Amino acid sequence: MPSPSQPPRVGFVSLGCPKALVDSERILTQLKLEGYDVVGSYEDADLVVVNTCGFIDEAVTESLDAIGEALAENGRVIVTGCLGAREERIREHHPGVLAVTGPQRYEEVLGHVHAHLPQPHDPFLDLLPAQGVKLTPRHYAYLKISEGCNHRCTFCIIPSMRGDLVSRPIGEVMTEAENLVKAGVRELLVISQDTSAYGVDVKYRTGFWNGRPVKTRMTELARALAGLGAWVRLHYVYPYPHVDEVIPLMAEDGLLPYLDVPFQHASPRILKLMKRPANAEGTLKRIQAWRAACPGLTIRSTFVVGFPGETDSEFEDLLGFLEEAQLDRVGCFAYSPVEGAAANALPDPVPEELKEERRARFMAVQEKISAARLKRKVGRSMTVLVDETGKNGAIARSSADAPEIDGRVIIRQGAKLKPGEFVQVRITRSDAHDLWAVPTGLRVAG
Ligand code: SF4
User: Fold this and answer.
1) Residue among 55, 151, 162, 200 whose CB has most ligand 1 atoms within 8 A, to mutate
2) H or E element in which residue 427 lies
3) pLDDT at position 411, please?
4) How far is the CA of 352 from the centre of ligand 1 (A)?
5) Which atom, in ligand 1's list, is nearest to the CA of 275?
6) What is the DSSP letter of 120?
7) pTM surpassing 0.85?
8) What is the pLDDT of residues 170-214, one digit of tens each?
9) Exposure winner among 93, 342, 382, 406, fewest CB in 10 A?
């Protein structure tokens, strides 16, 4: 327990996806506002909050292990996040936790923290930075625009854990984005479960930002964000017709020519079994049209192979789609059943070995495509954003690379650069994932 002169200290463990990270940032911001100290070790903490993930079985195991570790090392643990929606599962493994709350239950988490570690008397002693507490490096930040999802993909339990789509008011999102940019953020990564559905739940209501009317809708949001002067990257965009409207904005400064569209499969029958909204033929045409409108566009996607019932020929169709679509960045998962997902009841599960074999074949095809696409960039000049520097050079990203999931631009002779700086480079070499570059001496204003 803290002494009266010392602020109470909370430890925080944040697991899971960028959406969970944003939840963690909100809780941490509030705790700091209330005068709690956030500390980096179990030993220094009076209590530990664990923000869990429950998306796939591996994440559940990781979350349960993290709770166990926090209990062993500290003993006073509050659990929140996606796995928190399954309290019985947590209590079965860890009956000693102080409290359990589900995802986005910020107030409940804070209530439990207050109950077990009373608030300090003068919350204003602790100054909070204007942009709140961020867990990402200072120069980029995730901007969460909605919670929940209206789809019911059969392999996913997010809607049952997080509920239907709830869009954040556009004025609130824009103010947060503006504060982040004012505080030095150079890149905003827009996230949600389904970014293109933004505003559907409020019938695209008109909100206000800085006294101006703005519709709660992806195109209007993208346009407003692009005007803030930072890079803006759109994640988790579903190929609805109105996505075509944002492509011309990508030719202008600000909105990066980058679309993260989780296609998941290309066989119409598998997409139907997955309950995904799209068919491959339409998708290929859309990709061609997007590229015609914005030739520098980077398309990132994820796929699942070995979904129950996937036949050899359906898998071959998927490889054929990959060859035709020539996507820039691709992630591939072997299907793994998630407790509570509707897909578990589907017949004809694909044997584990075959799933892995398909995943390896899929990645081999994509690796060749990625290598060829990156090779075309050798000799070109481009603006990159520096992430890290060391004595041998710097690591940066181009408009084609989202942090953590895509490639890097490795800059030789870049030791004098600074993280968060935009710089002009010339590409000298490539492989299947990364680019190598030298600075052209030009520092680009952010
Ligand atoms: S779109 Fe599908 S996979 Fe994504 S969160 Fe919604 S239900 Fe899950």
Assistant:
1) 151
2) strand 422-430
3) 94
4) 24
5) 2
6) P
7) no
8) 999 999 999 999 989 999 999 999 999 999 999 999 999 998 999
9) 93
Banded pLDDT at 37 (limits 50, 70, 90): confident
Closest atom, ligand 1, to C-alpha of 264: 3
Which residue's CA is the nearest one to ligand 1's atom 4? 193
Is residue 220's pLDDT more than 70?
A: yes
Contact 314, 273 (CB under 8 A): no
User: pLDDT-based confidence at 279, cuts 50/70/90?
Assistant: low
* Spacing of C-alpha 301 from chain mean position: 13
What is the 193 CA–ligand 1 centroid distance (Å)? 6
- What is the rounded distance in angstroms from the CA atom of residue 308 to the CA atom of residue 93? 30
> 377 by DSSP, 3-state: which?
coil
The CA 177 to ligand 1 mean position distance, Å, reads 25
Residue 228 has pLDDT above 50, yes or no: yes
- The CA distance from 266 to 332, in Å, is 13
Q: What is the pLDDT of residue 125?
A: 44
Query: How open is the CA angle 21-26-32, to the nearest 5 degrees?
Result: 120
DSSP-assigned states of every residue in 160-201: HHH-S-EEPPHHHHHHHHHHHHHTT--EEEEE-S-GGGTTGG
**Which atom of ligand 1 sits closest to the CA of residue 149?**
6
Q: What is the pLDDT of residues 282-319, one digit of tens each?
A: 889 899 999 999 999 999 999 999 999 999 999 999 99
User: Ligand 1: residues within 6 Å at CB?
Assistant: 149, 151-153, 156, 158-159, 193-194
Q: How high is the pLDDT of residue 312?
A: 97
Atom of ligand 1 nearest to the CA of 159: 7
Distance 2 CA to ligand 1 centre (A): 43
